[in-house]
Amino acid sequence: MAERERATALRRRGSQRRADIQQAALSLFTERGYDATSMREIAEHIGITKAALYYHFDSKEAIILSLFQENMHELDDLLDWAERQPLTPELCSDFLGRWIAHGARQGLRTMRFAVANHAALRTVLPLRQGGPLERVDRAAQLLLGPGAPLHDRLRVRMALLSVPNAVLAARGTEATEDDILAIAAQEATLLVGNLFPAPRLPVPEQAPE
């Protein structure tokens, strides 16, 4: 039992260290630029050795790729969940709210990096199938069903892109993550109009006292 507990604790520490590296790298890439940031600076930022950093990621490219892959996996999990539910107005409201909350919570820093490092991102993540726009298309089909008019499809796709739009609009302003989430939800509500109810954002989990 003790060996199993030690192995579990090591895995948790490894997962946390990996997440710390990802967030530190994103912050530095966004503030200083992807090309201007070195692996050594990422290690120093969180107080670990380069050897410890290279144990988890062998390059800056690997860090960015891991972040985008994790983001896509989380969207896939959300889409898989929704596709198992009956298509109702309430499901559409819940799904769009969860989609927006995910973008503001998990994808926001990644999108800020992408806005600040567009040229570098094209090199690290060359255009290919299976990216964010494919998830947007899948989500729009899920929300509208087959045969929806083009105008409705465009409105829903724009609602699904409300967080990236808000991130772009907020660049160079004092907008916080809460501001971006709020304006993205308002934009999506205006766009979906009478198609289904306003996106219902999930209630944030309360931290244990």
Automatic annotation (TrEMBL):
It comes from the Bacteria. It holds the Pfam family TetR_N. Keywords: DNA-binding, Transcription, Transcription regulation. Signal peptide: none annotated. GO terms for biological process: negative regulation of DNA-templated transcription. One of its GO terms (molecular function) is transcription cis-regulatory region binding. The keyword Transcription applies. The keyword Transcription regulation applies. InterPro entries: DNA-bd_HTH_TetR-type_CS, Homeodomain-like_sf, HTH-type_TetR-like_transc_reg, HTH_TetR. This is TetR family transcriptional regulator. It comes from Nonomuraea phyllanthi.
